[in-house]
């Protein structure tokens, strides 16, 4: 198979990628099969790629108000969203890696918690 000028070989996987494709990049063909030259050693570049690729993390739930306030005061905390659904108020603080959620059933406690949030955070009522 002839490889066009717009295709290139991926440095980690060794697959030929076509960058002129209208839907983005596509694999043109698999690399030719060659005998294993690693002598049983793992492919370090592939392991590095897998170790440092972004991973989607699930949100975390906090059950104590004190722990939530400590999390909201962290350096990497960016914003707080307050969502009221019926009798339950949810406080969601966005940090660099996780979204932390606290569910409060008592409306008085929710009002006190809203007043005690750090002033530097952006607060959104949903």
Automatic annotation (TrEMBL):
Protein name (record): 60S ribosomal protein L38
GO BP field: protein-RNA complex assembly; translation
Alphabetical list of InterPro entries matching this protein: Ribosomal_eL38, Ribosomal_eL38_sf
Source organism of the structure: Volvox reticuliferus
Key word Zinc-finger present: no
GO cellular component assignments: cytosolic large ribosomal subunit
Keywords, comma-separated and alphabetical: Ribonucleoprotein, Ribosomal protein
Keyword Ribonucleoprotein tagged: yes
UniProt region (Disordered), positions on chain: 19-40
TM spans (from-to): none
GO function terms (MF aspect): structural constituent of ribosome
Family named by the database record: Belongs to the eukaryotic ribosomal protein eL38 family.
Protein origin, superkingdom: Eukaryota
């Amino acid at each position: 198979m002839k490889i066009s000028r717009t295709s290139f070989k991926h440095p980690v996987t060794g697959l030929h990628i076509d960058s002129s494709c209208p839907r983005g990049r596509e694999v043109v063909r698999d690399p030719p099969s060659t005998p294993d030259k690693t002598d049983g050693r793992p492919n370090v570049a592939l392991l590095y790629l897998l170790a440092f690729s972004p991973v989607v993390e699930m949100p975390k739930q906090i059950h104590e108000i004190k722990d939530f306030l400590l999390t909201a005061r962290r350096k990497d905390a960016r914003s707080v969203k307050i969502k009221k659904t019926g009798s339950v108020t949810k406080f969601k603080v966005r940090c660099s890696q996780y979204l932390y959620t606290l569910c409060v059933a008592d409306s008085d406690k929710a009002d006190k918690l809203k007043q005690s949030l750090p002033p530097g955070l952006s607060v959104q009522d949903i």
